[in-house]
Amino acid sequence: MTKNIMIVGVGGQGTLLASKMLGYVLLKQGYDVKVSEVHGMSQRGGSVVTYVRYGEKVYSPVIDKGEADVIISFEQLEAARWVEFLKKDGVIITNTQKMEPMPVITGAAEYPEGLLRSLQQQELR
Prior knowledge:
The chain is α/β, with parallel strands linked by helices and 125 residues long. The chain has helices spanning 15-28, 76-82, 102-105, 115-124, and strands spanning 3-10, 32-38, 47-55, 68-73, 86-94. A 5-stranded mixed sheet has the order 2-3-1-4-5, with helices on both faces. α2 (76-82) runs parallel beside α4. The relative contact order is 0.20.
């Protein structure tokens, strides 16, 4: 059975390093492992998502909506951004740190309030 872990955060937080380390550890334990990353604006504090899939045999590195067993988030807003990828019985582990995106910094938007409560409710669904 294949397990799916997403590691999400903001550029510079170490999400890419964390996924590579996790993949290495799983590989050393004898699993077939696929690691994939998406980091468009990561050098400027943009959203970064990595996929770590492992099991007896893994055919694709990509995790689709509703397939993540675990989402590890290094930032609250990123957890909310990717929550729809969580399985019905999945788990979110998130840092409570807030890193304001550019629209918040410039005053064009406000950082959403109550994200942690919203994530807890989503996890309980």
